[in-house]
Specification:
The chain has 609 residues and is α+β, with helices and mostly antiparallel strands. 23% of the residues lie in helices and 32% in strands. It folds into five domains: 2-198, Rossmann fold (3-Layer(aba) Sandwich), CATH 3.40.50.300; 202-295, Elongation Factor Tu (Ef-tu), domain 3; 312-387, Elongation Factor G (Translational Gtpase), domain 3 (Alpha-Beta Plaits); 396-480, Alpha-Beta Plaits (2-Layer Sandwich); 492-608, bipa protein (OB fold (Dihydrolipoamide Acetyltransferase, E2P)), CATH 2.40.50.250. Helix 9 crosses helix 14. The termini are far apart.
Length: 609
């Protein structure tokens, strides 16, 4: 049986996972009476809640088309720029890719990022213009934009001669010609079989076994599972193997306990797997991503793809607030350290370094969302941590100058809001590159902006555009430091004592600003309970109750009616805080506080300064 290994790559929300749903359904993976779920590949809880793909996942289908029966291994990849490390790793496992582009939105920053990676690896993509049934779809414009992008990136003549197909992933159809309607995805399956070459590794079946680990996960019964494409030889359960790091140094020796092949949405144990197939191997306990598993006689490691460095970092430390240890059961520095190192081992885009002078850890990644997903996973596992404001990771240039990461930003907004967006981002040192109408009364704005100026801007952007704007960003390059950028415009309201908040006190404080807490909640000295309406910080007493006396007032007492508090989400809290503030994260609560908890200490320090 012939085989094809293909990845589906695209910008976020261009329909990759929905298209994979239809590919699975139409290839006969599900029984006629089997219940199916929407976005079946998004198995992670946060993926389902957020509606985005976070982890790259593999599936396999059998297609009986014009060329006979073919097994197609399909890898669904994340579309968000923060999870670009997943895309960089898995592209080395495939021989071709389907580049999905929205027929209305067209080419976006992440489209350029994933296509650049694919072309560098010598892949010849298939262009799939998706969502052609949308009201404002313009497939011809998008096709021209895609060709221009291929040429601008430096595609070879062979890569520029890419086939294209039109599709509606949600409706489950594809066609090579829009004038010839179709009701299934058979043309896309046939195009993959015809255009994507079979694995070159198939010719190396008689050579010693080698596989490069690309994905790592843990199974409660089988232990560590290492996924990759077999480069040569056969994998057979019981076979003696050893693991080599990138430099060819032996890490451990062991035996293959299970070989799991992807069959639809399930992994099934098989008696053997041959070169070219994508499988998961159990039996090793120390080998990790980018290591080579191979037969005992092999001494050279397979080359691993280099991963782009992280651009954003934050400090993760022990929760040392007065309310620490009440909601989580994993609060010790050692436990937090082990969890972070475990994440860095499986996710090559994250880097963890220990702080020398405290029980804190510097966690660097691609963006706020990636770090937010990690912290959210930890809080769901029962961890309590305190986290600092994200900072950009600087580099040093050849002349010793400080370089900062610059991101390519593409914004789609209603025409009436384009002025305020450009004004705000220009004040944050962003440079306007291009601007023009994108149809349906919207304007598309292209800018180059320092990464640090985008930290905390998303909430302000949604407010300025009345929730109608869409901001997409992806790392572009490094440039010399652009100077100071103005931070948060408003100060905060800080509790000056410990206890439970009183409705009467919060009612009186509402005229001072916006509350982050409601009545009857535990607070402590130094905790941020709201946003001040002015630029300075203000110490307040949220516990002050109404004095009860037997003296009657001439008028009626006013009923206390509180405005519902504005409770920030984890990402909003991380983006909101300033350098001298922390976010306290527990399984049940997200609190903001000052790093130095005693307000009177802050006042004395200010006077001394």
């Amino acid at each position: 049986m012939s085989m094809r290994n293909v990845a589906i790559i695209a910008h976020v929300d261009h329909g990759k996972t929905t298209l994979v749903d239809q590919l699975l359904a139409q290839s006969g993976v599900f029984r006629a009476n089997e219940a199916t779920t929407e976005r079946a590949m998004d198995s992670n809880d946060q993926e389902k809640e957020r509606g985005i793909t976070i982890l790259a996942k593999c599936t396999s289908v059998l297609w009986n088309g014009k060329a006979g029966e073919t097994r197609i291994n399909i890898i669904d990849t994340p579309g968000h720029a923060d999870f670009g490390g997943e895309v960089e790793r898995i592209l080395g496992m495939v021989d071709g890719c389907v580049l999905l582009v929205d027929a209305e939105e067209g080419v976006m920053p992440q489209t350029k990022f994933v296509l650049t990676k694919a072309l560098k690896m010598g892949l010849r993509p298939i262009l799939c213009i998706n969502k052609v049934d949308r009201a404002h779809a313009d497939p011809d414009r998008v096709h021209n934009e895609a060709f221009d992008l291929f040429a601008a990136i430096g595609a070879t003549d062979e890569q520029l001669d890419f086939p294209h197909i039109y599709a509606s992933g949600r409706a489950g159809w594809a066609t090579l010609d829009l004038n010839q309607p179709n009701d299934n995805l058979a043309p896309l399956f046939d195009l993959i079989v015809d255009h994507v070459p079979p694995p070159k590794q198939e010719a190396k079946i008689d050579q010693p076994f080698q596989i490069l680990n690309v994905l790592i996960e843990s199974d409660p019964f089988l232990g560590r599972l290492l996924t990759g494409r077999i480069e040569s030889g056969k994998a057979v359960p019981g076979m003696a193997i050893h693991a080599l790091d990138r430099d060819g140094k032996e890490i451990e020796r062991g035996r293959i306990t299970k070989v799991l092949a992807f069959r639809g949405l399930k992994r099934q144990p098989v008696d053997f797997a041959e070169a070219g197939d994508i499988v998961a191997i159990a039996g090793m306990s120390k080998a990790t991503v980018a290591d080579t598993l191979c037969a005992m006689e092999v001494t050279d490691a397979l080359p691993a793809q280099p991963i782009d460095p992280p651009t954003i970092s934050m400090t993760v430390g022990v929760n040392d607030s007065p309310l620490a240890g009440r909601e989580g059961d994993k609060v010790q520095s050692r436990v937090i350290r082990d969890r972070l190192l475990k994440e860095a081992e499986s996710n090559v885009a994250i880097r963890v370094t220990e702080s020398k002078d405290s029980d804190a850890y510097e966690v660097a990644g691609r963006g706020e969302l990636q770090l937010g997903v990690l912290i959210e996973n930890m809080r769901r596992e029962g961890f309590e941590v305190s986290i600092s404001r994200p900072r950009v990771v600087y580099q040093t240039g050849e002349n010793g100058e400080r370089l900062e990461p610059i991101e390519e930003v593409v914004i789609d907004v209603d025409d009436e809001y384009s002025g305020i967006v450009i004004e705000k981002l220009s004040a944050r040192k962003a440079e306007l590159k291009d601007m023009g109408p994108s149809g349906a009364g919207k304007t598309r704005i292209n800018l180059h902006s320092p990464s640090r100026s985008l930290i905390g801007y998303q909430g302000e952007f949604l407010t300025d555009t009345r929730g109608s704007g869409v901001l997409n960003r992806v790392f572009s390059h490094y440039e010399p430091h652009k100077g100071a950028i103005e931070g948060r415009a408003k100060g905060v309201l800080i509790s000056n004592s410990d206890g439970e908040t009183a409705a009467y006190a919060l009612w009186n404080l509402e005229e001072r600003g916006v509350m982050f807490v409601g009545a009857g909640e535990k607070t402590y000295e130094g905790m941020i309970i709201g946003e001040n309406s002015r630029a300075d910080d203000l110490d307040v007493n949220p516990m002050k109750a109404k004095q009860l006396t037997n003296v009657r007032a001439s008028g009626k007492d006013e009923a206390v009616r509180l405005t519902p508090p504005r409770r920030p989400t984890l990402e909003q809290a991380i983006a909101y805080i300033e350098e001298d503030e922390l976010v306290e994260v527990t399984p049940k609560s997200i609190r903001l506080r000052k790093q130095v908890l005693n307000p009177s200490f802050r006042k004395r320090r200010a006077k001394e300064d």
